[in-house]
Amino acid sequence: MSILxxxxxxxxxxxxxxxxxxxLVGVSxxxxxxxxxxxxxxxxxxxxxxxxxxxxxxxxxxxPSLAMFGFLLPAPWLGERAGRLxxxxxxxxxxxxxxxxxxxxxxxxxxxxxxxxxxxxMTDWQVLFQVELPLAFGVIxxxxxxxxxxxxxxxxxxxxxxxxxxxxxxxxGLAMVDNRVILAGALPAALIALVADFSLSRxxxxxxxx
Length: 210
Known about the structure:
It is a single chain. α2 (11-45) packs across α6, α2 (11-45) runs antiparallel to α8 (124-154) and α9 packs antiparallel against α10. It contains ten helices and no strands. By secondary structure, it is mainly α. The protein is elongated and about 70 Å long.
């Protein structure tokens, strides 16, 4: 049976696992954005936390994926369900580029623009939300794009703990030594990453040069 025939025969299961994969990535990225952007903003307001926050996020990036799942497994609430554990691990992996780019984007706003806004009587919060964040949004989006691509790839490892996703095919194919099964997981995952990268790149360019 050729690869195309295998894809056609298993299209329903591939579609279901792709949706599981998208759910893992989508929830993880939502949490990473909700956590990472405020942490990036905090770095611009409280530089003394820079070493602790960036250092912690960098350490997470150096931990191998399977080891991270293993570290989190003993946690009572997380270890009860594989989905929770996978989402937590993926969220942690996605934080670094979002935090870094939020910090870089806000820090990179022209000081003259910031001073002009303050000269108009804006409070620090108004400057942040009405001036700095809109101007930094393109840079922040770059971090979200990088984090999304990373998360799509790492999410394939979630199948090792029973969290589902396209990694199911990859691990099954490795066990069977069957390239068709491996590609049934790897190719859709790569396609998701490419589509996410292209879409977010278009959006990023729109905001950078608006």
